[in-house]
Amino acid sequence: MKNKIPFYEKLAFAVGDGGCNFIWTTIGSFLTLYYTDNVGISAAVIGTIMLLSRLVDGFSDLGMGVIIDRTHTRLGKARPWILWSAVPMGVGLVLLFSVPDSFSSGAKIAYAAISYTIMAAVIYTASNLAYNTLLSLEAPDPKDRVTMSSMRFFCTMSVVLIINYNTMKLVNKFGWTGMAIIFGIIAIVLLLITFFFTKERNFVDVQEKKEEKEKVSVIHSFKILFKNKYFVLITLIFIINYTALGINNGIRIYFARDVLGNAALMGTLTLCFILPKMIGNLLYPQISKMLGKWKSLVIGYVLEMFGVGMMMVMPASLPGTITGLVLLGIGGIPHTAGLFAMVADIVDYGEWKTGVRIDGLTYSATSFGMKVGSGFGAAVVGWGLAWGHYNGVLASQTTETVNAIKMLFTAVPFVLFAVGLIILLFANIDKIYPQISKDLAERRLAR
Fold first, then answer.
1. Count of CB atoms within 10 A of residue 392's CB?
2. pTM for the whole structure
3. Minimal CA–CA distance to 83: which of 22, 33, 13, 130?
4. Using one digit for the tens of pLDDT, what is the confidence trace for 79-96?
């Protein structure tokens, strides 16, 4: 078959997200700890830097999407950006974890702000958005896309576990810069594997040229987009979910060390949270078939609230924390797999209502929700630690600080999930989707 993708190419695609996560999961889970405990930057300042940088990052996604759409080289549209950004990704990670000790306090803050913003809003955006775009350019068969996405997910989760189990061991042995060099080299190698062993199929570019004349202006596309009520609601849900995830990732090491009393538990806590998602990813198609996407998302929020609620009432209990994180992971299954599938339904709804289909902009703008949510999550961690008077110099934190960490790990996500559930109640597209699908099929046949 002409466009059949060999297994080695599917695997080469999957490891690219492992490369991205050796960069971004390391940053999301450990950079705040490095800044507070080793560099001496206050948690409140860190939170503000990360929020402002991720807001810029969210808008840069839209700009990078336009740039990729207009890239035409012999290497393709997306693959060149994976190549061009691979080394800057690794170098950027090393620079982030190498704030010079000789700098003044103000210089350290400036260094952190500039390096983090360049890394988040420019280098990582170019690499990761190109990687995400590669799937549609590489795989013509929807079945291949499902398989490659599944392989990518398992690769990503495996890398997350490796990072959470080994980062502090590497830091203790080689220092923060040494750890970053090791992870940066691995990330570069994995991204280069993706570049060298994948290819974009020409049929995609030809199809784009055929449709180019039919495209509406960018301004008009945005006007149409924001008339789509489901798009607005689902973007808010993305912001809420990724704020909660950003808080969980950023505060987990503090919770393990300062509440449970053992930083080495970081890997175990991450495993309890991620393993249910890894297994659930395989089962979700059946779950969705039985319940529908919307109902499974509602149940997911309820389970997540039960999970963080259990940790609220048993905050210093390892069994209680493990049980709560497992529930949090199970509840997150539809919010990992189902939420992205719902975006495709929302694209169809927009076409059904307006007669104009804007796939790319819808997905780019939704990634804006993810980026802004991650920024809010990182900011909340920094501000919450500052509110609890966290002091990275102390061997053990005060009761006030420990209570703030507990609140960030449990109570704040509980409130976020409750708000998300309320918004979701107004976003039940499943009830009208059969009619949308029927009407769109009839319109296309009539053309």
1. 17
2. 0.76
3. 130
4. 999 999 999 999 999 999
